[in-house]
């Protein structure tokens, strides 16, 4: 049975609607967001966020960037167009007793926020997935104070994204005619994977002194194929669309193949650690 590659190549379908993100909010919060804190903190340091400053997170999800900002003592507003994602974020801040943070449902293309409001505005893996990234970046710049900074954290090259490449290899082992990711244009996640493209997008949005740091990476541990399956399918609604044509038996076989790959990668000793390159871009208004 062939996998429907059309879902992965059509730009309109790549932009998952709010209800699709609602559907994976709990899984994203459980499987994906906990591993984001190390590079979120690196980005916040690069942006110079300090306790007491106002921080806006755009397309925040359940708070992979917002929660570290709140823990630093910033006054945080997390926005996302998925109500379920904001509910997960608000549950987190209640659990941690973070009274300096709040969440609001909001579209990144049309932030209901006055000009020149925040000291630092950021987005981690979120704003690159919206329909119109240039517009969303201009909105982020608009609501940032003069002299403030805008922070963007995204993936680098998909070829070096080890979790993604192993997952694709497992799919191709079960469904040989699966073509993998499109190159032109690339998936939205990787539209600013080239550091120079990211630098230009941030500059075009109205920022100066733009710096793109490529020295950080995401590190994820997987002890089983099921763990990797859960991580991938809850990281983006498009993943579910890509595997949607597989039968239950084929899906089980993919997880078995992933089990074998993880054992080979770890040498049979503990979990496998897989990495992905990151671009952390910062510019000043």
Number of helices: 12
Strand content: 15-25%
Uncertain spans, ≥5 residues at pLDDT below 50?
1-10
Query: Gyration radius, to the nearest Å?
Result: 19 Å
- CATH class group: Alpha Beta
Distance between the termini: 51 Å
N-to-C SSE series? HHHHEHEHEEHEHHEEHHHE
Class by helix and strand content?
A: alpha/beta
Description:
- The chain has 285 residues and is an alpha/beta fold.
- The N terminus is likely disordered.
- Helix 3 packs parallel to helix 6, helix 8 packs across helix 12 and helix 10 crosses helix 12.
- Helix 6 links the parallel strand 2 and strand 3.
- Strands 1, 2, 3, 4, 5, 6, 7 and 8 form an 8-stranded mixed beta sheet that branches.
- It is globular, with a radius of gyration of 19 Å.
- The longest helix has 19 residues.
- It has a single domain, classed as Rossmann fold (3-Layer(aba) Sandwich).
Topology record:
Elements: H1 6-9, H2 11-14, H3 18-32, H4 37-46, E1 54-57, H5 66-71, E2 75-80, H6 83-96, E3 101-105, E4 118-124, H7 133-142, E5 144-155, H8 162-174, H9 195-204, E6 208-213, E7 217-222, H10 225-233, H11 237-242, H12 248-266, E8 272-284
Question: Summed up, what is this model?
Answer:
The chain has helices spanning 6-9, 11-14, 18-32, 37-46, 66-71, 83-96, 133-142, 162-174, 195-204, 225-233, 237-242, 248-266, and strands at residues 54-57, 75-80, 101-105, 118-124, 144-155, 208-213, 217-222, 272-284. Helices cover 42% and strands 21% of the residues.
